[in-house]
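Page 47, continued from p. 46.
Same chain as before, 491 aa.
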Amino acid sequence: MPDGVYYGPYTAAEYLTERGLVTVCRVGGLTGYEQNYPFAIWAVKGQYSRNPSAGALNSGSSYVYFSGSAANQYSESVSFANTSSKVISLTSSSFTVTFNGDPSDVAAPFSPTSTSGSLLYSGQTITLGTTNTSGILTNVSQSQFSASIANGTFSASFSSSVAVTFSQAGSPFNTSLTLISASLSVNLGTCGFPLILLSGVLSGSFGKYASFVPNGSASFDPCILPSGGINSSSADTDYRLLAVLADTQAGGIQDLVAPGFSGSTMTLTNPIPVAGVTDIPLDFSLTLKNSNSSTPYGVYQFSLDSNSTSYITNVFGSDPRAGDPDTQVAGQKIEAAYLYKVYEEAINGERTDMVVHLVHQHFDGSLAVVGVLMSTKPPSTGKKMFSSGDSPKENSLISTLWSNVPLIKNQMSDLALTIDANQLLPADRGYFTFMGSLTTPPCTENVLWIVMKNPIYVSTAQVKNFENLYPMNARPLQARGDRVIKESNTR
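Result:
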């Protein structure tokens, strides 16, 4: 705006292409202000290391499944070195285990009769899948193996601990595990075929979360022209930009430059102790500092858990006018930064979850776009542009479209599907109209825009289904500038 009230970050026309997704990232002034040193928050793909843990198995509901039959000595999954050997090799035997019920780890000497079923997985049944391993049985050789299973007398123990790896298991059981004091027995009466029962203690790295290990490292560099960018140290680094903070009008703009937050730091609110934590931490403390000051604004505590009252959008908001020093209450922490989130259309500052663009082209090449807002929220009170006729619900046409959308990004498919685009329009046909541009490159100018005043309603699940494929495919909210916006008088 000419009076300089609004300023903030925006996404540039340049595109950073990452793994087939288009990430648009630019921070600067929409109306002439340059934003220095924005604070970027991003996620790097990786995994948490886990502390050691051990749990005793419930011998009545932990099983090993041998492929084959007694007639062929279960040769598909079991082998011995020779007929007198007690060294058994399990080549494709499948394991399913149930931990005992007490939520604590088994302590040394790891008794298989302990009631402790590990700290985090007590009472749970885990399908581990197949493994290739070997061990020495104490009292059963190959010559006795099949016959003892068939007549129900099979009972054998492993003479020492057995290392097992289940590559098909889910995390954290897909790493190296150890069976301690393990024994096998047979039950003939449960399933109508010999069922091999397993007892013992299973140990491995499936305890509390200890520390995060990223696939690689990344850093945000505001000096990468033209728009700043994220540097990654290896090709394996997989990151997602989550948020960008920019100065509010309390930032001390000088010579049309917002100073930003050089020197600011962010840490976990509650650092992970040596003993680890039960849940992955999502709460952070941001020590926010103006680039031109040695004294921080303060420590802003926020969460990346959307169910938390301290969710990042509640802490920072999206209004660049917040934190005006002239309107601060005595002792109130200055709202020094605001969170910019991209939407393509907004009416009187009210934004919706999604938008659909119905693009029309005349034979002379001229373009017109009908924009329809899509909302999951009940109609707002006090906002005349939102009628109260509908309520958020599953949209049948959107359900049909989503059911036919290719599940692979950028994949094209031909469908024998007919839709009525009128079903994408609200009952109230009031609209705003203005001249603008297309929202995707090359952003062609002189496009007639018709934005419906009222939204259509979709369910939260429908929005999430789209976000799973396209988490960000929108251009940012653009400045009005000097364009004329007209409002319809009829519906």
